[in-house]
Amino acid sequence: TIQINGNRPVIVEFWADWCGVCRSMSPLFEQLSTQNPAAQFYRLDIEDVRDVALALGVRNLPAFKVFKKGVQVGDLVGADHSQLVRLVKNM
Fold first, then answer.
1. Which residues of 21-35 are buried (b: 16+ CB within 10 A; e: fewer)?
2. How many CB atoms lie within 10 A of CB 3?
3. Average pLDDT over residues 33-54
4. Chain-centre distance for alpha carbon 53
């Protein structure tokens, strides 16, 4: 269960096994998660959480959402390594 209402920032990656571009972003997402222990990082397969993804406006993959105290404060769609690093740095 993901707790997005807590004090720690939460970063969620929406991906799918069939998405090759998503697989190219996964190593960076994993690296950022180890470099930023103050935040919680989650990877959600849209095949398993399609309703959640649609409710959060995920239409393209990969998609990244940042939440602080239950409020979405950032997002990124696509496989842009430098933008993902910036998104995590600015959380």
1. ebeebeebbeebbee
2. 10
3. 95
4. 11
Give backbone dihedrals phi and psi of 61, rounded to 5 degrees, phi first: -120, 155
Strand partners, 12: 42, 65
Residues marked active site are found at 19, 22
Decide if pLDDT at 72 tops 90: yes
Distance CA 46, CA 53 (A): 6
Instruction: Measure the CA–CA gap between 79 and 76, rounded to whole angstroms.
Output: 9
Q: CA-to-CA distance for 32 and 30, rounded, in angstroms?
A: 5
Based on the number of CB atoms within 10 Å of its own CB, is 77 exposed (0-12), middle (13-18) or buried (19 or more)? Answer: middle
